[in-house]
Amino acid sequence: WTGYVKRSLFAFYRDRTKHEAGEPAETRLNAMQVWGVTDRGAVRQQNQDAYATKVLEDGRVIALVCDGMGGARAGNVASTMAVELFMEEFFKADSSGPVEERMGHAASVANLAVFNRSVHEADCAGMGTTLVAALAGDREAVILNEGDSRAYHINREGIVLVTRDHSLVED
Fold first, then answer.
1. pTM higher than 0.85
2. Cβ partners under 8 Å of residue 34, min gap 6
């Protein structure tokens, strides 16, 4: 699975030669390759993108990219806050239940915190961010997106967009 957000990219790659059924989790960890890169691009004066990745004990990977809204004040603050809060909330010790609900809850917590800060701090007025997250395993991935951040499934057959933009243009 690969996700792309404007000038940010995160990718997962499963090397099947290193993964055998029944292997201990610590052996499987090396089978999932994860990387991320972000760039401010040629137009922007600052990079408003933030991301995080983590390989879980069971070999799955969670990755998140947030893109501070272009031109909005403190977009870099919004994207950094959203990444940190999403990951913190997702990994809370008391988290249980379906992964889709955990991801949705983590996104809601991050969204509320970013919104509250934008309302209560003048330097952050109007800040916002998009978000795309993926929890990828051996044969499936759970994808969450807000705004116009996108995720794609890339394989030998080609590239397929798997998310829908949440924007005035798309709606």
1. no
2. 10, 11, 12, 53, 55, 61, 63
